[in-house]
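re: the backbone from monday

yeah here it is again, tokenized this time
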């Protein structure tokens, strides 16, 4: 049931304010993304793109909601927004944070731009049959010229097909279809299992502090200001170079703390990085204490104790040093680069522990289907039967949810197969089953959303070996096996087309970012439902707001990406922006770099010949471990290791989270045991919120600084 005793009124102004806020934030984010590294929103000295992904969460997660809450608090006496309305507006921003960036819809624009910039004939021939969804005619270079040099009006008529197709594709696939899956999971995850959703807690704090019962809002207090100030000071080595590296030279990269991993102090591969960023610690403070302890124990066992065991018994090679802590997570082959034994382990286990971690998470997803089978039965049978009492708190009826789910999946499939042409047209069934359901929906969507539900964004689902392993499997299989429905033959253009539209690149053009596309389509809406549940808002209001916010953000992202590009020029970006590199991964990186030669050099030698016995066993062992840990956690409340925590440690995290979450556990445990929950809520919680808001502010500040330098011609 909804947690409210007093029903508030939701006025149309909530949706109007939300729509305006989404539009402003989308335009702002798109502008910054046009000038920063690979379409991101900061210029901190961070070495790798995947690392950068996990340094920008606080901007989207907490800065904009805080600004909205501050406005609501200031205008409270005028009844600008009540708590229900503020929750709706905040959630409209919450579900659109990903869209105006490379990991949202911007990649679909950068891909064709990169392809045309290089002019590789194989790329052009591969996508010529669907030229309309890539932009102006490939044969009229004058229409593309302004895109790169700027100072030209946008030829909107030539980009109309691109905007229409990609808008429909993104809305239907990554947000529409996935939102309906979120609807089906809502009651079980939020009301029955009552998952914590840690990142919802700061939002709830902001909303209640701005629109509480007291006459004076609690949003502004000394503890929040202190958290903001200390974070600004502590992070100065990272954000000052972002303002101007010529004035503030880079002194540290990636993390604030020593990385001893390259030194090879011990002959075991143990990622020895000790970083203490306050905003990461603050994010960890919203995770339940038991979950923090469980993660710390699981990580310590997996990466500090077991490496000694594996090396001693000869299943890992002796580690001789040389690798930074963030270089072990990329691919099965890359991770085991220091020896043949480790390389074989990586193939069988999905990098380090990717497959066992995935097995544990699958157990976490499957067991509740039996434990709560009564609820599951109702959800499934709602296709032909109505349950008024059960559905009264649902966003829309379950029958309508199922109907829309089917319709959107069919549209998604039709659009993708049409874009992929013959390569996918002859592979509809395996594409739907193996890639659509298993990889995008289950592994890339639901399982990662489940991880987020327990740990918020204190994890790294990309380079865990799990997502990379699935891409490795389908990516190599469909390209190089003659019996594969995606086999490209010996034609370079066919190979190129397969690389662009096939499972490797995640149709159409989402690269290996399925973990962010579908999982955030599911998770961001579920997290919004969690906020609504705690504030007392019926989820139907959130669902309505979702469908107002998503189209606005998607359309404006494409429109303003084009406008800013033709105004300033893509090639006028900062010097470090590589238009033929990461921005092109989704749709043109391989062909741009010489598709056929690269396929022969890289894909064919690593072709996946089917699952190894070791990979099957490691997945099954992980599943069994998940089942055992699940029941131990239920039967013995004091049992220290939660199955989700173990899965997070093995397959959904990276070393730079260990120390911050360890510190978060120590701080939260001591505060609650010394001063009680009241001390945490009144002092520590606002401090943590201030810290997260500060990080977002600093990203915004350096993003604008980078845009300014690019516009005026400073490198």
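seq for it, each position gets an aa:
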């Amino acid at each position: 049931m909804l947690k409210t005793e007093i029903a508030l009124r939701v006025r149309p102004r909530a949706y109007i304010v939300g729509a305006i806020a989404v539009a402003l934030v989308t335009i702002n984010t798109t502008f910054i993304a046009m000038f920063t590294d690979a379409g991101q929103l900061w210029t901190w000295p961070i070495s790798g793109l995947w690392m950068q992904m996990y340094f920008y969460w606080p901007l989207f997660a907490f800065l904009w909601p805080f600004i909205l809450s501050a406005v609501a608090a200031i205008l409270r006496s005028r009844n600008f927004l009540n708590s229900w309305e503020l929750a709706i507006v905040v959630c409209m921003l919450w579900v659109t944070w990903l869209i105006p960036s490379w990991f949202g819809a911007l990649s679909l624009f950068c891909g064709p731009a990169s392809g045309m910039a290089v002019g590789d004939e194989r790329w052009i021939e591969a996508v010529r049959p669907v030229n309309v969804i890539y932009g102006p005619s490939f044969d009229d270079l004058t229409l593309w010229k302004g895109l790169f040099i700027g100072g030209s009006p946008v030829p909107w008529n030539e980009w109309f097909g691109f905007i229409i197709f990609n808008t429909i594709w993104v809305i239907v696939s990554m947000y529409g279809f996935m939102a309906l899956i979120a609807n089906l999971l809502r009651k079980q995850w939020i009301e029955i299992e009552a998952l914590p959703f840690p990142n919802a807690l700061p939002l709830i704090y902001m909303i209640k502090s701005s629109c509480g019962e007291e006459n004076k809002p609690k949003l502004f207090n000394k503890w929040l200001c202190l958290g903001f100030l200390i974070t600004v000071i502590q992070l100065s080595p990272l954000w000052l170079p972002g303002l101007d590296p010529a004035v503030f030279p880079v002194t540290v990269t990636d993390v604030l703390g020593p990385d001893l991993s390259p030194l090879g102090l011990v002959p075991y591969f143990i990622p020895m990085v000790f970083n203490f960023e306050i905003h990461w610690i603050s994010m960890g403070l919203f995770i339940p204490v038991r979950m923090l302890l469980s993660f710390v124990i699981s990580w310590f066992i997996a990466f500090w104790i077991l490496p000694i065991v594996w090396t001693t018994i000869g299943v890992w090679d002796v580690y001789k040093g040389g690798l930074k802590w963030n270089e072990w997570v990329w691919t099965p082959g890359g991770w085991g680069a220091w020896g043949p034994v480790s390389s074989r382990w990586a193939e069988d286990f999905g990098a380090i522990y990717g497959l066992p971690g995935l097995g544990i998470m699958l157990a976490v997803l499957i067991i509740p289907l039996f434990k709560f089978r009564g609820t599951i039965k109702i959800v499934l049978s709602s296709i032909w039967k109505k349950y008024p009492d059960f559905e009264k708190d649902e966003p829309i009826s379950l029958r309508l949810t199922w109907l829309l789910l089917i319709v959107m999946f069919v549209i998604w499939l039709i659009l993708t197969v049409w874009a992929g042409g013959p390569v996918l047209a002859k592979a509809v069934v395996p594409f739907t089953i193996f890639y659509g359901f298993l990889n995008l929906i289950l592994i890339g969507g639901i399982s990662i959303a489940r991880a987020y539900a327990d740990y918020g964004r204190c994890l790294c689902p990309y380079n865990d070996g799990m997502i990379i392993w699935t891409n490795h499997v389908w990516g190599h299989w469909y390209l190089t096996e003659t019996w594969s429905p995606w086999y490209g033959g010996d034609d370079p253009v066919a190979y190129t087309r397969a690389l662009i539209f096939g499972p490797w690149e995640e149709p159409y053009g989402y690269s290996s970012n399925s973990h962010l596309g579908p999982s955030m389509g599911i998770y961001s809406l579920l997290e919004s439902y969690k906020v609504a549940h705690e504030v007392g808002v019926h989820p139907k209001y959130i669902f309505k707001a979702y469908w107002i916010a998503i189209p606005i953000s998607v359309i404006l992202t494409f429109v303003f990406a084009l406008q800013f590009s033709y105004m300033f020029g893509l090639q006028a970006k900062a010097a470090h922006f590589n238009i033929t590199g990461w921005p092109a991964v989704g749709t043109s990186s391989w062909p741009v770099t010489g598709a056929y030669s690269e396929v022969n050099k890289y894909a064919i030698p690593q072709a996946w010949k089917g699952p190894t016995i070791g990979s099957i066993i490691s997945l099954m062992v992980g599943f069994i471990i998940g089942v055992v840990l699940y029941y131990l956690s239920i039967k013995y409340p004091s049992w220290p290791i939660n199955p989700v925590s173990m899965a997070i440690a093995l397959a959904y995290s990276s070393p730079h989270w260990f120390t911050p979450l360890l510190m978060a556990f120590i701080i939260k445990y001591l505060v609650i045991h010394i001063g009680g929950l009241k001390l945490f809520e009144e002092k520590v919680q606002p401090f943590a919120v201030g810290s997260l808001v500060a990080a977002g502010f600093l990203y915004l500040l350096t993003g604008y600084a980078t845009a300014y330098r690019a516009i005026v011609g400073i490198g």
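The chain is about 65% helix and 0% strand. The chain has one domain: 13-256+348-712.
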